[in-house]
Amino acid sequence: MFGDDYYIELQRHGLEKLDGSNYSQEDLNQILLSWAEKYGVTPIATNDSHYVESEDEEIHDIMLCINTNQLIATPKTFDEGLAEGIKTRFGFPNGEFYFKTQSEMEKQFKDIPQVLENTQSIVDKVKNMNLMRDLAMPAFDIPAQFKNQDEYLRHLVYAGANIKYKVLTPEIVERIDFELKVIQGSGYGGYFLIIEDFMTSNRAENVWFGPGRGSAAGSIVAYCLDITKVDPIEFNLLFERFLNPDRVSAPDIDIDIEDIGRQKVIDYVVKKYKQANVSQIITYGKIKSKSAVRDVGRVMGVELSIVGEIAKSIPNSVDISSITDKASIDKIRSKLNGGDLGMFDNFMSLYNANDTNKQLIDYAKQINGFIRNTGVHACGVIIAPNELDTLVPLSNSKDGDMMVSQYDNNIVESAGLLKMDFLGLKNISTIKECEQVMLISQKVANFTKGQADTLRKAMGKKQLETMAKLYEDYIK
Known about the structure:
This protein is of the alpha/beta class. It has four domains: about 5-125, TIM Barrel (Alpha-Beta Barrel), CATH 3.20.20; about 150-285 and about 375-425, 2-Layer Sandwich (glyoxalase-related enzyme like fold), CATH 3.30.1900; about 290-370, Orthogonal Bundle (Arc Repressor Mutant, subunit A); about 425-475, no CATH class. Helices cover about 45% and strands about 10% of the residues. It is built from 18 helices and eight strands. Strands 3-8-5-4-7-6 form a six-stranded mixed sheet. A two-stranded parallel sheet has the order 1-2. Helix 7 (about 190-205) crosses helix 9 (about 260-275). The radius of gyration is 32 Å and the shape is extended. This is DNA-directed DNA polymerase.
């Protein structure tokens, strides 16, 4: 099955009595070498690397304690000479689990240098991949009577313009033609067609969208396609803020959707472009200064009141990792004023108060910025031209059926993937519900528009007396 890509791995971390047996790691290596010779499998040398530098051993152990909710002072399972029945915690047996240099590996395997040469053969097989790609648009089918997407886009835009405007003045025609020329030259016509398609299709299913967000409101093409509801001619909005002809970059239209209808839009996109071609986007939650202090203080067993005092003394604008020497402290102080400056001075006083505080904060500075957890981007959805697992690494979503790209929002676009922002908004759903209440009361109870609006207000503000009176009118 694996052919030349099957290897036997040797490691030397100086481990004795593996899994409680009388065999050491070196005993195991000798057995593996004999198997490699017997079965004709290539042996290679590696090091089980869990942190980068050898001096990172201590901070790695702290992160293990944070993740397993254990105290640093609790003995490790591997520790020798422990009394029977004593509580232990997970930890690594020694400090050999870092990313070793070539010379360190050569010294460690000097008796069998060929295994390192074999490791190099794996490196030589690694393909050099350029992750920076031009935007890859998913295929969008157009009616047979049109030659290409640009022609179809022009047709849709002018069809919409004739509905939006009573008369297509020279100003309007000039603006439309200018925008279409820029869009055609940039190659993003398909982008507008994709958005127009899912918005039109979902509106037909009574899904509500917002009027438009950001610079996209400056596009008359977006307005004529009903992507936005704001007339850029009437309000004198600039198209160049959205798509600059002198410095063309991928357009970015944020789509506001009623929150209860967002999943319908995603389901439509999945059905149209195939499940394997659509994913959500991962987010990486990082440890920040205050939580770093609290995490380290907890595993060090420092009194909670002291840990809380230190954490609360860190101004929100201060990154404790930037505190390295007197010059860095002076630089931070120069940017603070008022209460924040007083807080920071108190923080530095606490730092210098005793060795425990200093050690706690020094540890916290090292883990500050580490990734704590992963989540799913609130609105980002990727639509690819083919299976995403051929373009990006994927993972399972914790609370959904869709896959999640392991590239975060910043990398997705540079990797040439089309990202749509589907932002579910409660206020759009609320407006929709209010309009439904007014419409139902007019049609069912023959309310006037004024009565319908009074009912809406009474329901929104829970005015029971007003609703009771209107109830009688409604029943009549």
